[in-house]
């Protein structure tokens, strides 16, 4: 239906998370309407992202290396912040989850981005996760006292948490999971049984 | 639009919870199509409800008095069950919440149905709640050790919990609220800040 | 979970259209809270419905017979209204659809309530419809010039319309269906292909 | 919260249609995970779009100029197709609507992309539309017999259609709008009054 050049870009945008062909075509028409210099700003910004951004050696969070501090080349702003609590390591599945937790300003420890979750304990899924890197991190940092598994409360998150608990057992650290219960705004009548059970167990 | 007899019944059904005029009219047409004996079964069943059902003197849950046991006239099946834990009193706002909790089979204590929630601490709202009855219950039952406020996690539930905590303070009982956190199935990315904070606090 | 008398009424309410067990239980608790005289008003109103309401001999719409006019015993207010256009007969599947059309004040002809739709042309489905009565109506009223099939635009409505078109063919009347096209508020981008085709065909 | 380079790209993606900051950040993390050559394919494809794609001189649809036909430089595949019906001109507000209509394979005439709709008849809104270009098109092509206003059935589409009808009146062409009525799958009971009126008017 669309001409070749347009279709090629629609196909590339369709691979973006949450984007289907209809939205992808709206992106293309948006770019076609955009002034040439705005489009160049976008492509430059995308190239810059790949060239400038470094991945933190410690938590694997992407970051802008600070041009001033020499340390900036290795560690992200969180990992190089001396006031963070180094006895806590929070394992998250991706960068967005890290940002979501940071926004609450509640957690003051460090992070480790696992790079995904596993749907079942399939070997191919596990190979995509940073399991080896996690092992090295924990071995190299004896100051870690508690490892928090901050994973989704769905099937994939559960499977991953289970796998990690087994994997982390030999390191003899305290391992915790995020609390379950009623979320803000929830009505008891519509709570599922598991959540309600957790809410009774976690009452205080 | 509708004839008088039909409109009168539509108006009565429209007062039912969650029912609007459109649904109410579908109820009326449903009754019109129903055989006469089915409709009589319904009206008989409604009358029976008002005549047979008693309200439990202890928890205010409606129940069928058992024709055998003499005790059946005063207390519901839960309150008269000797194996329930009498040291726990769970305050719920209505009958549906009690049933929702019973279905989890997790809680083994007794209940008290408050009869509603308060949106703000308005005097008129408070008068609709069974505050006086709650006071008597707690005074008469020194075996109560923990009072669980099992209220909705929304603004009304919070306001009611706050009011009850203040009201119950002089009785020197342990007062708890249901645990907050991620509900089953929740994705961290979409959790609101308050829920996420609670999930971190309640980690285990 | 619920006591016998309550469960019996929940089961009866659960048969109401759009009502599931959860809503049915809310109905029962609503009735339990209602003053006795309000509940009696409801049961009286339901009984009155079955006793008072007549079904129009012509269109099968339920109506209150007028105590004054002698004619009131046979025909509803629409069918006995001399200013309605007797050359038009609009076939609808149920009473609610008739009311929905009347509210537009656009249509001035008469109606015929079919009593349902057929999902496929199953014999058992067809037996529930007033096909025989429709045949008599059309034979007895030579003044009918156009028969409008005002059925849902879904699969069941289509199947029923198809069946009726075939059934009505021998009567040599003009047979029409409601127009297809974009509904008010629709955006072209989200219109399905069939609707868009109809909108092009029906352009004016 | 995010580093500068990441935030800059999030801001640019947030301007894409239907994209908010959350989705924009997912796009950035997706690009960070993508191999460098995949990202380069994307930026090349975006640049190519701005360099290769031409806008059709006749209907303003973007297209790939065919390298073979000399004609390809001026007119899109639809406008240069000799088998299309040149007596029909369909005015659409944007490229996506044109594609949606093409997919139905129902319409065989030509198009004109207006470049937007007007919410009210504000002068600033009108200036964004290709009104001048439309005038020239109609003057230059006396073979046009019918102009179809294929606009959304919402307030903006209506306002634009009204404006165009007035503007096009002096050209003495047949002007039509897409048909209104029940869309495929619609149930009569839930149809709004205007749609139902249109469905009665458009019955056939």
Could you write a compact summary of the structure shown?
Chain A is α/β, with parallel strands linked by helices and 204 residues long.
Question: Could you explain the architecture of this structure?
Answer:
- The structure is a homotetramer of 204-residue chains.
- By secondary structure, the first copy, chain A, is of the alpha/beta class.
- Chain A contains 8 helices and 6 strands, in the order H-H-H-E-E-E-H-E-H-H-E-H-E-H.
- A 4-stranded parallel beta sheet of chain A has the order 4-3-5-6.
- In chain A, helix 7 links the parallel strand 5 and strand 6.
- Chain A is globular.
- The N and C termini of chain A lie far apart (61 Å).
- The relative contact order of chain A is 0.08.
- The mean pLDDT of chain A is 91.
- Chains A and D meet through helix 1, helix 2, helix 3, strand 2 and helix 4 of A and helix 1, helix 2, helix 3, strand 2 and helix 4 of D.
Provide key terms for this protein.
homotetramer, 204 residues, alpha/beta, four-stranded parallel beta sheet, two-stranded antiparallel sheet, globular
Main interface pair?
Answer: A-D, 47 and 47 residues
Quaternary state of the chains: homotetramer
Query: Helical proportion of chain A?
Result: 40-55%
Instruction: Tell me the Rg of chain A in angstroms.
Output: 21 Å
Give the neighbour order of strands across the main sheet of chain A: 4-3-5-6
Order of helices and strands of chain A: HHHEEEHEHHEHEH
Poorly predicted parts of chain A: none
- Work out the number of β strands of chain A: 6
Global morphology of chain A: globular
Q: Roughly how many Å apart are the termini of chain A?
A: 61 Å
* Share in β-strands of chain A: 5-15%
Overall average residue pLDDT of chain A: 91
Structural class of chain A: alpha/beta
Tally of helical segments of chain A: 8
**Describe the biggest sheet of chain A?**
4 strands, parallel
């Amino acid at each position: 239906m669309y001409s070749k050049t347009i279709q090629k870009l629609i196909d590339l945008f369709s691979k973006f998370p949450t984007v289907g062909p209809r939205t992808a075509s709206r992106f293309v028409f948006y770019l076609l309407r955009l002034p040439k210099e705005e489009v160049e700003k976008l492509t430059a910004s995308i190239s810059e992202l790949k060239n400038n951004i470094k991945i933190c050696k410690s938590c694997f969070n992407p970051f802008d290396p600070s041009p001033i501090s020499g340390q900036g080349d290795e560690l992200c702003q969180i990992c190089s912040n001396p006031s963070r609590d180094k006895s806590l390591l929070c394992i998250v599945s991706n960068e967005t989850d890290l940002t979501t937790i940071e926004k609450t300003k509640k957690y003051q420890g460090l992070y480790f981005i696992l790079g995904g979750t596993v749907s079942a304990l399939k070997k191919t899924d596990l190979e995509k996760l940073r399991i080896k890197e996690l092992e090295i991190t924990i071995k190299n940092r004896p100051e870690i006292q508690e490892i928090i598994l901050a994973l989704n409360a769905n099937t994939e998150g559960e499977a991953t948490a289970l796998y990690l608990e087994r994997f982390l057992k030999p390191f003899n650290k305290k391992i915790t999971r995020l609390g379950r219960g009623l979320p803000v705004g929830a009505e008891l009548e519509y709570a599922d049984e598991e959540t309600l059970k957790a809410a009774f167990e976690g009452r205080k």
